[in-house]
Amino acid sequence: MKKRVRREILALAALIAVVAAALVVARLYTARGNSVKPLADLGAAVDATVDVGYRAGADAYLLIQVEQQYAMVPLDSDGTLTIAQPGGERNTIAIGQRAFFMESANCDNQDCIHQGAVTLENRERRVMGDYVICLPNRVVLEMMDAGEAAAYVESSTVGTRR
Question: What is the pTM of this model?
Answer without folding.
Answer: 0.72
